[in-house]
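#onboarding

Welcome to the new folks! Below is a worked example of what a typical request in this channel looks like: someone posts a single protein sequence, and someone else replies with the predicted structure as tokens. Don't worry about understanding the tokens yet, we'll cover that in week two.

Example request:
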Amino acid sequence: MEENNILKKFTTAQFLNFCLGFFGLQFAWQMRIILSGPVTEGLGASPFIYGLIWLAGPFTGMVVQPLVGTLSDKTVSPFGRRRPYLLGGALLAAIALWIFPNSENVALMLHKMLGVNLPAWTALIIAAIMIWVIDACVNIAQGPYRALIPDVVPKEQHSIANSYISLAIGLGSVIAAGAAPALKWLFNYQMSVTAQFIMAALAFSLGMIWTCFTIKEPQTKKELLKDAAVADKIEDTFWDSLKHFFELSPEVSKICTMQFFTWIGTMCMMIFFTQYSVHTIFQVPDLTTASEGVEMLYESAVINGTNFSSICFAIFNLVCFLVAIPIGVLSVKYTNKKVHIISLITMILAYLGMFFTHNYKLVAILMGVAGIGWASICALPFAMLSQFIKKGTEGSVMGIFNIFIAGPQVFVCTLVAGLISRCVIHLESGAINYHWEYAFLVGAICLAIAAVVANTVKEKV
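Example response:
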């Protein structure tokens, strides 16, 4: 029996239920993106150390998603194949999201419990470990979540389903980024970093619980066993799974190459934008080795720069939210490839604008333009890939595909962070700063390569 005869078309209400968990996931991840830099910098992390800490995301993505994806293909439980991983990842992440901003307090608690003097960098190590835990849990949930689309959504609605995920990503990021600045603007109340991470923990866990209990995986136990048998037959080892992945179609390699360069370009902005806002736009020098008096001198500028970054991310993701569904509709009419290429070009132009100008108003507008590309990146590559997935292997395929999302982040975290750390600006005051805007130039070049590769992909019609 064909898949389209088994799966019923989703209604708008079902799509909203489906994407609410991803809303929570993105809420948590956006908070981690925006505030992990200020938290770790406050604990003494230099740009290079910060880049190394960011390796948590790519390394856990390359290991956890393929592993969990394959396990979810073979899982047979009364709760379904994917949902145990969605819920488990969310609940574990909530704990780490609470601990991360309290790393210094946890270090002090350990000092009292153990009765020994701990090294000064203990709090930074705890924070780094929590980032690794958060990223691992996000990956535990994210891979099976993407695999749930071909499980429960008819093939002709895959582009729309991925667009609803883009919508959730946009909305979750807008609220995560905009909550603190909105409270400051409306009520002159500065929300603490700890409170923002607790808010993220609640959003992730409650959103995922809602999706897990409102979206039912339709397979009977017999069908689950059949799909698990297919996965066992194809994926006896990781290398068998990888071989099968590239045998799906010659176009899969092109999509993966496109995704690799896309995510180098994307993460150049994601990782470094807050530091760019604080140090380049608001002209705060490097404070990692500054005295307490110097830190206090720039305290207001750091807060303003961080809040500006949050506003820009809110604008970026608001545009993503607004154009997500239109992009899905346009991709059905004009093909995924054409819409994706145009979206990438808008992001390239935005990056080049941010490289050449440091006017904060223009930067905010350019972040909105970049949001068009982000909406497409969150949806259309997955829709392009889903055309070639064999039933019973959805989790492993999406997990392996994530290698080409996570892998590029290693490049960004090491090489780009290393590049920035060597581009020192010596200020008249004797302090130093860095050319954080160089990240946008590298990002624009990589996105251009991704657009060229995308043009060579031959989609199924």
